[in-house]
Amino acid sequence: MKVKAVISYNGTKFYGSQIQEKKVTVNGTLQNVLKSMGIDSKIEASGRTDRGVHATGQVIDFDVPPFWNDTKKLSEIMNLKLPPSIHVRKITAADNDFHARYGAIRRVYRYILKEGKSNPFEDEFITFVDNLDTTLLHDAIKIFEGTHDFKYFYKKGSDNKTTVRTIYKTRIYKYKDITVLYFEANGFLRSQIRLMVAILLGVNDKKFTLEDLQDQLACRKKISLKPAPSNGLYLAKIFYS
């Protein structure tokens, strides 16, 4: 039986999500736990997250033998065996042709910002900045909406056939004392959002203009090449048809 699991994790504890030899990764940790439960199945994830990037709604799929037909019990045992840095939120039965990555039609990421100095209790989860001009950031983030070639907004090393992506929705909003940047698209390239956030923060700090952002998005010139820190980024939700 194939199952679909929604998981969350603290990316600070891992060298990214993908399995790497001699590295502690999210998928590697999950794979080891499944093996200890008599489940010898490869994990498929909706997408990769880099080192330090978190998830509140990552989706994975894997096959289970008949004796694990109780998905609630399966999630309970997995959570007992997993480290506190990974939590299985829910497991449900899935169609045999379900694929966590190729079946996804939209992905949502959030980037978390906070004004002020960092502190040891939040530094792993929030990117701290001096001042935020939310009106200017709203104007800047909206420029990313639509279909664009993001070849100046990604790190090489992935197996993408095209660098064109469609961003359906962006938002900037306050939640208590944090500011959230919201991105919803049909897919994202490696480090794309962190590079987008970096130029947004550059606009916020008056290092770049809106025209600079537009020039990089139109592939006319590269303005910002260093990605924003990974600790503020969260894979939030995956949509399927």
Write structural notes for this entry:
The longest helix has 13 residues, at 192-204. The chain folds into 2 domains: 2-93, Alpha-Beta Plaits; 105-240, Alpha-Beta Plaits (2-Layer Sandwich). By secondary structure, it is α+β, with helices and mostly antiparallel strands. Strands 1, 2, 3, 4, 5, 6, 7, 8, 9 and 10 form a 10-stranded mixed beta sheet that branches. The chain has helices spanning 26-36, 71-81, 134-142, 192-204, 210-217, and strands spanning 2-9, 44-45, 54-63, 86-93, 104-115, 127-129, 146-149, 164-175, 178-185, 233-240. The protein has 5 helices and 10 strands. It starts with a strand and ends with a strand.
Chain-wise SSE layout:
Blueprint: E1 2-9, H1 26-36, E2 44-45, E3 54-63, H2 71-81, E4 86-93, E5 104-115, E6 127-129, H3 134-142, E7 146-149, E8 164-175, E9 178-185, H4 192-204, H5 210-217, E10 233-240
Parallel strand pairs: 3-10, 5-6
Antiparallel strand pairs: 1-3, 1-4, 2-3, 5-9, 5-10, 7-8, 8-9
